[in-house]
Write a structure and sequence with these properties.
Elements (H helix, E strand, L loop, with lengths): L7 H4 L7 H6 L9 E5 L6 E7 L3 E2 L4 E2 L5 H4 L22 H6 L9 H4 L4 H4 L9 E2 L22
Parallel strand pairs: 2-5
Antiparallel strand pairs: 1-2, 3-4
């Protein structure tokens, strides 16, 4: 196999990627923008179907990506040197997969060449969420889902 510039993720570590490469790893699934609950005893992460208020659930992108850190106090900005934050990412996430030495899935836009395959494959949160502005935060555990947790790990 000939490695091309298009398959940089196969030959570079996360810390060696430039900003454009790093950003292109995001598959546009929106899973990282869902609220998660952590069991303080076991450390187990539970995903909910509750989306951040900034997530446009039609296109699965942040509506104010540049200012998200100022607008959402608990938004986490991933970086290659802080892999402890990768544990809460789903097993399908390119950042987590590459950090674990795995390849990208067939539906990832960098592999398929089509940004819509993440939606066609049912990986994205499109049509599966409720906004955080529409729920009572004290009832977050009522929104725990299993369609993501099954692929963690």
């Amino acid at each position: 196999m000939v490695v091309t510039e298009d398959s940089f993720w196969k030959i570079k570590n996360l810390s060696d990627m430039n900003q454009t490469e790093w950003e292109s790893l995001c598959d546009g699934c929106g899973r990282c923008c869902l609220h998660k609950l952590e069991d303080i005893d076991s450390g187990e992460i539970y995903y909910t179907n509750v989306a951040c208020r900034l997530l446009d659930t039609t296109i699965c992108k942040c509506t104010d990506y540049g200012k998200r850190m100022q607008m959402v106090s608990d938004c986490i900005q991933l970086n290659a040197n802080d892999r402890d934050n990768f544990k809460w990412l789903p097993g399908s996430c390119a950042y987590r997969r590459i950090a674990e030495g795995k390849n990208l899935q067939w539906w990832h836009p960098l592999v398929s060449g089509d940004p819509d395959t993440v939606h066609q494959a049912g990986i994205s949160v499109r049509g599966k969420t409720v906004s955080e502005t529409q729920i009572d935060e004290s009832r977050m555990e009522d929104h725990v889902i299993t369609w993501i947790t099954a692929d963690i790990g």
